[in-house]
Amino acid sequence: MTLEETIRRKIDLKTKPLGALGQLETLALRIGLIQQTESPQLKHPTLLVFAADHGIAAEGVSAYPAEVTYQMVLNFLGGGAAINVFCRENGLDLRVVDAGVNADFPEHSSLIAAKAGYGTASFLHDSALTVEQLEFCLAKGAELVQGLQQTGCNVVGFGEMGIGNTSSASMLMSVCTGIPLDQCVGKGTGLTTDQLSRKQSVLQQALTRHGLLTDPYKILQTYGGFEIAQMVGAMLTARSLHMVLLVDGFISTAALLVASRMQPEVLENVIFCHHSAEQGHGLLLDFLQAEPLLRMNLRLGEGTGCALAYPLLKNAVAFLNQMSTFAEAGVSSLDD
Ligand SMILES: O=C(O)c1ccc[n+]([C@@H]2O[C@H](COP(=O)([O-])O)[C@@H](O)[C@H]2O)c1
Ligand SMILES: Cc1cc2nc[nH]c2cc1C
Question: Gene3D superfamilies from the xrefs (predicted)?
Answer without folding.
Answer: 1.10.1610.10, 3.40.50.10210
